[in-house]
Amino acid sequence: MLVLLPPSETKHPGGDGPPLDLGALSTPELTGVRTELVEALVELAGDVPGARAALGVSARQDGEIARNAELRTSATLPVLDRYTGVLYDALDVASLTRAQRARADARLAVGSALFGLVRGGDRIPAYRLSAGSALPGLPTLRAIWRPALEPVLAAEPGLVVDLRSGAYAALAPVAGAVTVQVLSERPDGTRSVVSHFNKATKGRLARLLATTTGEPADVVGLRRLLRRAGLHVEHAGGTALTLVEPAI
Hints:
The chain has one domain (2-246). The chain has ten helices and ten strands. The protein has helices at residues 31-44, 48-55, 62-69, 79-82, 86-91, 98-107, 141-154, 166-169, 195-211, 219-228; strands spanning 2-5, 77-78, 108-110, 118-119, 123-124, 160-162, 178-185, 191-192, 233-234, 240-246. The longest helix has 17 residues, at 195-211. The chain is globular, with a radius of gyration of 18 Å. 38% of the residues are buried.
C-alpha cells in the first residue's frame, strides 16, 4: 500500500543530515527532473524580486528564497520530519514506535513540486516551491512532472491511497487510486468541507494507514479497515470514499 500525501508550505528548518543527494532519493528515474528544478530554484534565488513573483511570497518571506539558494548545501531531514502544519501535526511521526516508523517510511510518500515523489525516509532540505509556482523560462510544473511521474505512479504495485490536494494530484493523476473526501457534518445534518478539519482528519488517516499491520488490497478492504477503526465511511461505488465526522 502506498499513501500519497500533499506537502506543506511550512517546513522545519535545519537538519542533522548531509546535504541533498538527488541520486540517493527513492525513485531514481526522477533524478533528471529533480536536478533541473533544483538548479532553476538556486538560480532564481539570485533574483530576489523575480523569486518573490515566481514563488508567490512577500518581502517578509525572503528567508524562503534564502533557503532555496542553499538547496545544494543545507542540512537535510527525513521527509516525514521536514514538513509541518495541520496534517503533519495530526500524523505525529515523533510519537511512533520504531516498528511503526519503519512502516510509515515504507508506506507514506509526499507528492512534492520540487522532488516529484519522495518516501518518508528520504532526506531533503527545507525549500519553497508550490504546485502552482511558475518558474521563469520553464513550462508549468504540471507539464514538467506529468510525463515523468505518471508512469512511476502507474507502476506502483498494490493499493494506492491518494490524499493529495487537488493541485498536487494534478501533477500526476493515479488511475485507480482510492481517493478520500472528508466532510464535516453539523447537528442539522448539513455537510461541508472545512480546510483545517480536512487536513487534520487526513493526517490521522495517514497515521492509521501507516501503522496498521493490515494490508488492504482494494477499496473494499480499505473501507473495511477504516470502519473497524471506528470511522464513519461511506462508499457509493468506484474508488472514492467519504469520511464523515461531526462538526466541532
